Amino acid sequence: MGNIITLTTDFGLRDHYVGVMKGVMLSVNENANPVDITHCIDSHDIRAASFVIGNSYRYFPEKTVHLAVVDPGVGSERRPLAVSADGHFFVGPDNGVFSSVIRSCEDFCAREIKNSDYLLKEISSTFHGRDIFAPVAAHLSLGVSFSEIGPQVQNPEVLPSDGYSINGNEVRGTVVYTDKFGNLVTSIPTEAVGGGAGASVSVGGKRVAGISESYSSVEPGEILAVGGSCGYIEISVNQGRACDIFGEAPPEVIIVREES
Predict the structure, then answer these.
(1) Model pLDDT for residues 123-134, shown as the tens digit of each residue
(2) What stretches of the chain show up as alpha helix (H) in DSSP?
(3) I want to staple 197 with a disulfide (CB 3.0 to 4.6 A). Which of 59, 118, 159, 210 is the partner?
């Protein structure tokens, strides 16, 4: 199982970048098993990449290596990073892309990638995914000791938490991720709400029906709130796109729970 390497990037599928990284990994470990999580993160959206990684890595076996390249600071002074957490390895830039993993795992170890034995011989200033992260991920998949990657980092970059707040029966959060279907995933855990159809939901000042059991609980075209598969409340439109209604700016979401 140690040969699995997942890939999360903002590269898209038009260019050769993803294929080249896989070629580098296979050149290091011919038995590597690259698995694409997504290459459709919006360009430079570190927060979205962190959300995707934090909600996907647990579904893979321990010792899986998770490679993330959403790297607007490539070529700058930002550190290349490897993280060991929860029985998994994570490789990518030290720009907050692993925030969700680090926040959820108290017992993690981060190391700056320094050992040139595990890098390509020539390092470009624009494609660290190929020259640094892909070969390091492949070496880790072969069982190279994590301590050999480089010196320990005590303060890896962590993005501010989106979070949510509870005041009496009122729960407030915001939108943290928009999926391909236009569903708005909020920072409010489903378990924090507890209510159902009787809850009052407001999104950017617009009232929504109470929390539904499924997308089809309302008529096509109607807005709804639903407990999503990632464990957070989602704002959706049955057979439509909630993001088209609420726009680009993440709206505040307010849920008033049912009285118990």
Answers:
(1) 999 999 999 999
(2) 17-28, 46-54, 99-104, 128, 134-141, 190-193, 242-246
(3) 210
